[in-house]
Amino acid sequence: MQLSVKDAAVILNVTEKTVYRWIKQEIIPCYRINEQLRFNRSELLEWATSRRIPVHPDIFKEPETVTALPSLTEALKAGGVAYRIEGTDAPSVLKSIVSVLMLQEEVDREFLYEVLLARETLGSTGIGGGIAIPHVRNPVVLHVTKPTVTLCFLENPIDFKAIDGKPVNILFTLISPSVRAHLHLLSRLGFVLHNPEFRALLYRQASREEILQGLAAAEALLPPKAPQVG
After folding, report:
1. Who's near 207: CB < 8 A, 6+ residues apart?
2. Based on the domain organization, do 121 and 159 belong to the same domain?
3. Are 185 and 95 members of one domain?
4. Which of 12, 38, 41, 91 is geometrically suited to a Cys-Cys bond with 2, CB 3.0 to 4.6 A?
5. 135 a catalytic residue
């Protein structure tokens, strides 16, 4: 979906003047199409998440007629929580993470690793505060039938080229079969990571049960779905 400057301003809860300033500073992903400025929704959400910019609640609303997607809590239950992941740099950490992901046997893990690694070369998915969200820029169908999120705690913090320059030791890996599922999970993750109680659980590497309970509580604060039209 190509968004206008006005659309971007609404999603980011800022004025159009602010968006134009970011465009001029070349710090926001933007394209010029037929002499008009346009934004890619997925890239804009990634950008906002990486800078901890709260997005407008409307971005979380789904029409009732749309097939239901799993909650972030359900996706994490499916993807699991892993502790003491080894690695001394981003490539070795991503290799370790791919090895523990709960995926079907037919998924090519080596290809998935290469895709995740290539995504990092485009710009770190480290969002600051010791947290990163490695994922592919455009979700790839790898015989994956449902979206999952895997939370990994590293044995040792590493330099992930995060926006704040701090080392990373908490990673959420998103694996989605579609762009819609990808945006669904990314937007919710961006929302819950602003919750201080949930972040506290992450920083003390709480148990899987505590993390899932805390995530469910944080996700329950999301705006309700939009009412069905028609």
Report:
1. none
2. yes
3. yes
4. 38
5. yes
Position 137 scores a pLDDT of: 59
pTM for the whole structure: 0.73
CATH number for position 125 = 3.40.930.10
Per-residue tokens: 139 = 């979700």
Mean pLDDT rounded to a whole number for the chain: 85
In this predicted model, what pLDDT tens digit does every residue of 55-104 receive, in sequence order? 776 655 544 444 578 899 999 999 999 999 999 999 999 999 999 998 87
In a shared domain, residues 107 and 203: yes
**DSSP per-residue letters across 36-93:** EEEEEHHHHHHHHHHTT-PPPGGGG---TTSPP---HHHHHHHH-EEEEE--SSHHHH
Domain extent, residue 24, equals 2-53
Do 77 and 49 share a structural domain?
no
In a domain, 24, yes or no: yes
